[in-house]
């Protein structure tokens, strides 16, 4: 290729050769690409802009997105041309020659003759001629689009100035689409101010979770479970090249989950890419800055200056950070401000801007041999710790002190802030920190010892925590630590289902309540309230909850507030006040938002309870989204009720979708966890639910076997009158009644139901009473007394409507659903319309798995009353793959309402009564 000197001021003779043709030829699209619908729609709809700037670091899919936009524009009749820039285009003459060739390409595509460039013209004359040609170039409505890729190669100010002149002169409807790793330093301000600039930023180019799944599962054909896909999406942060490299590695690995769990920027393919395509092309000063600051999870100019000053380096971090941001070098702003010109908002005397490195880039930097070595690393961490401490930010100050191995600095900081950390529910953080202290390092810190017990309680479970608690001598501790010991003892015994011991501990302890220490006082009062509630003493439970709230009144103890609000919501749910319970759970779930260290344990507890209540009101998709996030945390949380309800609700949602295997898998996980944690109630609950599902499948033998195993007295050892929250509805007695009804008409079973119903009402177990009333209606129907069955169900539906209960009826199978649908029809307008619709939707006639697989009177493909539209076919395929309405809406870039409309149309055309049957019929017809 000719040099700049050879082409300056004239058209190079070889510009029509292979080199120029290669620059004008767009790259061949990858067969594995994912359609970037949102970006394409944004760019193609932006007729009002003159410049579209697609900017992102290397490997973020800029070129792919631009190719898709070009194809979309061409399909709409807009003439386009493509030009890939390189360093040789820093010469004005060469750059003009490239642009002239690109415009000629568009002219030929439009059937116009190629324009002639007179020899010997100056660059200015050629530029003016090019501007004149642009004015008459466009297709219909004067529109055209010129795509310039790799703009970061252009460094010459004369070339960039020429480009901005061309942009300013673009006729209405024409636009320039620019792909670049860098943010141009000049030329954007006026365009942005006039609304003539559209910026596609790195955040928009990152794959969404749905796009990552589409790439890995559909485009690449990898058989990955949803959890593995989500994990890889989080680790790559939607970086397209990282997903590609990971997918190549996954093709050769029989155990993808293990690879994904350890995937980082140190993996060979990622590291080689970052080293060769990014790092080695940076100036030496920038490389040194990156290696020095790699120890930081978040960066600002003053913090970076502090680290560099400790190493005797210059304090010019603000300039380097500004350069890195303009270069889009995997530097992610932690605030939304940006200067009008596109650079960092560095206002003299103003607050410092904060950034972080892309997680894979950070891993790569920390693994570089030239990074701060073992002798320098502690000094860097200590410098960061000291800086954060002076800024009143104890969490990163402690983090860096521990990373430096300086417990002498970390432990006093931790002692001074441990009360706040406990109140905030930062149990995982405390567990990690305190677990990193060398053996015996906490011996002189009794308050930190007790904090470790709290942390272990909610991360490793009550058994490990109670062993640590027993090693603390409360008699040798100050009163505050004694208060913590008392609260912990009661709570841990309760978490382990040792209710009688917990009650004895609180009764025999002579210390008064409150003891004058807000956190342990509130936890103890709330734990005692839970115990009172499982004994059925709701008045005492609510009195204790009021005391718990009073103990932390006026403080920021969000963990205590969540705990007390959640327990009162459980009491409301048990007593049939679903709407009040939902309100309390929503308040608790929103009290403490997730932080960068992950969801807090308090948040997990509240969100699990909210999911259970949402499921009860038939908001299954919202419940499932919460459970998929928080059930894994519940296993560490250690509260048996939340572990049970989370697994069972997920099993029921899966079963309702026709995924019986997945439902039984959730139950198997619950049973295994019960054996592992020595919590037999988890095992019993899994067996009871397994029996219920077996009855719905018509397998009475399997249901009887599960019930017999669940009735083992070794599984449930507690005194009579104690009913846990997770088992206030489902227990052995109710399971036996359900089995008796399945075995045929049984007046004795109906009479037993009546006795259980009276006992539930006496104990104020109104949710259980509702379930028994449903079974009573089923019993009358089994005996052939349709009138009494309808009367019983009508009364039940009327109460359910006041609170929004749906699943308590729908989960009882075909007979209960038919009676409930009849009750809704009989009630007419006396029921709230929204509730009636939800109940009817949940009670649509269900079919067994065998019936769904071989539906009666299924239409043939040719006999469909109306063929499925292309969009309905896409929805049907997503439905068959198990996607929720929300996930389908995200993938198809439509609203949930549109998805529901498509699903209704599909069911009508296939003559299907539910989602499972629709998929079965579609498979039979060859539509899938």
From TrEMBL:
Gene3D superfamilies: Tetratricopeptide repeat domain (1.25.40.10), Winged helix-like DNA-binding domain superfamily/Winged helix DNA-binding domain (1.10.10.10). Residues 861-926 form the HTH luxR-type domain. Pfam families: GerE, TPR_MalT, WHD_MalT. The keyword DNA-binding applies. This is LuxR family transcriptional regulator. Keywords: DNA-binding, Transcription, Transcription regulation. InterPro entries: P-loop_NTPase (IPR027417), Sig_transdc_resp-reg_C-effctor (IPR016032), TPR-like_helical_dom_sf (IPR011990), TPR_MalT (IPR041617), Tscrpt_reg_LuxR_C (IPR000792), WH-like_DNA-bd_sf (IPR036388), WHD_MalT (IPR059106). It comes from the Bacteria.
């Amino acid at each position: 290729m000719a040099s700049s000197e050879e082409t300056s001021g004239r058209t190079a003779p070889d510009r029509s050769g292979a080199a120029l043709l290669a620059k004008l030829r767009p790259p061949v699209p990858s067969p594995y690409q994912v359609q970037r619908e949102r970006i394409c729609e944004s760019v193609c709809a932006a007729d009002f802009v003159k410049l579209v700037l697609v900017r992102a670091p290397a490997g973020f899919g800029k070129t792919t997105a631009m190719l898709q936009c070009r194809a979309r524009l061409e399909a709409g009749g807009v003439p386009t041309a493509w030009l890939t820039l390189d360093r040789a285009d820093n010469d004005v003459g060469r750059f003009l020659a490239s642009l002239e060739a690109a415009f000629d390409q568009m002219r030929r595509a439009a059937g116009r003759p190629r324009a002639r460039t007179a020899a010997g013209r100056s660059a200015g004359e050629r530029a003016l001629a090019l501007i004149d040609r642009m004015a008459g170039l466009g297709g219909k409505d004067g529109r055209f689009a010129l795509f310039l890729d790799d703009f970061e190669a252009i460094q010459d100010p004369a070339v960039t100035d020429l480009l901005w002149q061309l942009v300013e002169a673009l006729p209405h409807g024409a636009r320039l689409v620019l792909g670049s790793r860098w943010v141009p330093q000049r030329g954007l301000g006026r365009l942005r101010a006039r609304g003539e600039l559209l910026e596609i930023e790195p955040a928009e180019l990152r794959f969404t979770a749905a796009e990552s799944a589409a790439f890995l599962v559909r485009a690449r054909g990898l058989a990955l479970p949803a959890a593995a896909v989500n994990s890889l999406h989080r680790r790559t942060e939607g970086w397209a090249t990282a997903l590609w490299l990971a997918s190549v590695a996954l093709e050769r690995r029989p155990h993808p989950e293990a690879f994904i769990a350890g995937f980082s920027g140190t993996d060979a393919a990622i590291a080689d890419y970052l080293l060769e395509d990014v790092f080695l092309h940076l100036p030496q000063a920038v490389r040194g800055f990156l290696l020095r600051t790699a120890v930081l999870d978040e960066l600002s100019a003053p913090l970076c200056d502090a680290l560099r000053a400790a190493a005797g380096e210059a304090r010019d971090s603000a300039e380097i950070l500004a350069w890195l941001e303009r270069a889009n070098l995997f530097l992610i702003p932690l605030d939304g401000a940006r200067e009008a010109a596109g650079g960092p908002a560095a206002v003299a005397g103003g607050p410092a801007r904060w950034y972080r490195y892309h997680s894979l880039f950070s891993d790569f930097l920390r693994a570089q041999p030239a990074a701060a070595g073992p002798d320098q690393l502690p000094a860097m961490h200590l410098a960061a710790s000291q800086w954060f401490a002076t800024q009143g930010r104890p969490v990163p100050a402690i983090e860096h002190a521990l990373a430096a191995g300086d417990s002498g600095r970390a432990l006093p900081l931790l002692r001074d802030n441990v009360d706040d950390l406990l109140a905030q529910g930062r149990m995982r953080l405390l567990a990690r920190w305190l677990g990193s202290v060398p053996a015996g390092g906490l011996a002189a810190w009794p308050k930190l010892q007790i904090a470790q017990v709290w942390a272990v309680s909610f991360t490793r479970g009550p058994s490990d925590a109670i062993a640590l608690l027993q090693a603390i001598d409360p008699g040798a501790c100050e009163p505050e630590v004694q208060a913590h010991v008392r609260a912990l003892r009661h709570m841990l015994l309760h978490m382990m289902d040792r209710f009688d011991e917990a009650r004895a501990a609180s009764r025999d302890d002579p210390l008064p309540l409150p003891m004058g220490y807000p956190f342990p006082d509130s936890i103890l009062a709330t734990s005692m309230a839970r115990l009172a509630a499982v004994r059925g003493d709701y008045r005492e439970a609510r009195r204790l909850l009021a005391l718990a709230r009073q103990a932390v009144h006026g403080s920021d103890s969000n963990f205590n507030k969540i705990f007390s609000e959640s327990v009162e919501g459980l009491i409301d749910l048990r007593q049939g006040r679903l709407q009040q319970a939902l309100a309390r759970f929503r308040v608790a779930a929103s009290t403490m938002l997730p932080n960068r260290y992950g969801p807090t344990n308090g948040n997990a507890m509240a969100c699990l309870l909210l999911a259970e209540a949402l499921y009860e009101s038939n908001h299954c998709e919202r419940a499932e989204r919460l459970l998929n996030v928080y059930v894994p945390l519940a296993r560490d949380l250690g509260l048996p009720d939340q572990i049970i309800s989370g697994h069972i609700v997920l099993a029921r949602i899966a079963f309702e979708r026709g995924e019986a295997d997945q439902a039984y898998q959730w139950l198997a996980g619950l049973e295994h966890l019960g054996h592992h944690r020595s919590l037999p109630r988890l095992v019993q609950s899994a067996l009871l639910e397994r029996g219920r599902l077996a009855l719905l499948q018509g397998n009475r033998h399997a249901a009887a076997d599960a019930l017999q195993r669940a009735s083992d007295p070794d599984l449930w050892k507690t005194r009579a009158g104690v009913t846990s929250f997770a088992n206030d509805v489902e227990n052995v007695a109710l399971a036996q009644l359900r089995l008796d009804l399945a075995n045929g008409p049984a007046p004795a079973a109906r009479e037993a139901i009546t006795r259980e119903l009276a006992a539930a009402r006496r104990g104020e177990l109104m949710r259980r009473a509702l379930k028994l009333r449903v079974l009573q209606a089923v019993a009358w129907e089994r005996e052939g007394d349709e009138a009494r069955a309808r009367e019983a169900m009508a009364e039940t539906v009327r109460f359910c409507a006041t609170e929004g209960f749906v699943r308590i009826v729908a989960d009882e199978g075909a007979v209960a659903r038919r009676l409930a649908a009849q009750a809704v029809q009989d009630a007419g307008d006396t029921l709230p319309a929204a509730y009636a619709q939800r109940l009817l939707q949940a009670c649509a006639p269900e079919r067994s798995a065998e019936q769904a697989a071989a539906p009666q009177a299924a239409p043939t493909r040719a006999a469909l009353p109306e063929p499925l539209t292309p969009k309905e076919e896409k929805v049907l395929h997503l439905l068959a793959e198990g996607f929720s309405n929300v996930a389908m809406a995200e993938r198809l870039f439509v609203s949930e309402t549109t998805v529901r409309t498509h699903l209704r149309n599909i069911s009508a055309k296939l003559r299907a009564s539910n989602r499972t049957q629709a998929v079965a019929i579609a498979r039979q017809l060859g539509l899938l």
